[in-house]
Amino acid sequence: YDSDSFHAFVKQLPAEVFIEVYHCLYVNVDHISRVDADSLLLDTGEEVPVSRRKRKSVVEAVMKRLVAG
Question: What does the angle CA 36 – CA 63 – CA 9 come to, to the nearest 5 degrees?
């Protein structure tokens, strides 16, 4: 894959909705059902890894979206 094209595409995504949860792995915050220690569960039932470094920002983003309604 072309990393320049990928990063250009990612920059177009709304940052309050899409968050990087692992290296080059982005998730729509509105579809996160649960955040665990090293993974998260999507509303589709799929489990996705979350890096330890990004876990705090993922939890904050989920909480922010819940408050925003």
Answer: 85
DSSP string, 17-63: TEEEEETTEEEEGGGEEEE-SSEEEETTS-EEE--HHHHHHHHHHHH
**Distance separating alpha carbons of residues 34 and 32, to the nearest angstrom:** 6
Token reading at 62: 């989920």
How far apart are alpha carbons 42 and 44 in whole angstroms? 5
DSSP codes of every residue in 6-19: HHHHHHHS-TTTEE
pLDDT in tens, 16-30: 899 999 999 999 999
